[in-house]
Amino acid sequence: MKPHRATRLSIHPDNPQGRHIARAVEALRNGGIVVYPTDTVYGLGCDITHRDAIDRIIRLKGRDPKKPMSFICADLTHISRYAAVSDYAYKILKRYLPGPYTFVLPASRETPKVLQTQLRTVGIRIPAHPVPTALVAGLGQPLLSTSANRSNEQTISEPEELESRLGHGVDLILECGALPVLPSSVISLVGDRVTVLREGSGDLEPFLAMA
Questions:
Q1: Could you please report the per-residue DSSP string of 40-52?
Q2: Which CATH number do you get for residue 77?
Q3: What is the pLDDT of residues 7-28, one digit of tens each?
């Protein structure tokens, strides 16, 4: 019996092929795991309503199950379904999304508990990249967003390495060549206070000035 190996498809980073997006969406709907490009690093994702798929990603990454993962929404209206967005937070989200930031907000009841912190907060992204936004639009559900690597190991940036290191544990790899290894910056807006939790991609000076 041949070992499982994910299908790898080259996708255009500006005008993603509809057939590739459709194939990925079908895999996600069936509880599959997909590697996909973002405006920062390659992401590892699934439909957030598929608990089995989330558990598979946790095992694949060797990740602490108590450490929550963020997810991608389609737009600000979509975010407000999964998080409590104050007027103050809304103005910041509207200004800086889409972009290379993960914003931490109070979670709503719609957010699966496995994706919430102990403080009932959640990290949400809207990347400035057409592939993940097309996947969310096609799926009609948020897309789990965690970096494509094992926990405590460097983020994988090369398609060949994605295939060799993760191909046994995922169902589909959408790649568009080498990507940077700097993840999104993580910014908390909980309690209408701006706190930079992780320095990564994107300009952080405006947020540091607000903190």
A1: SS-EEE-BTT-HH
A2: 3.90.870.10
A3: 999 999 999 999 999 999 999 9
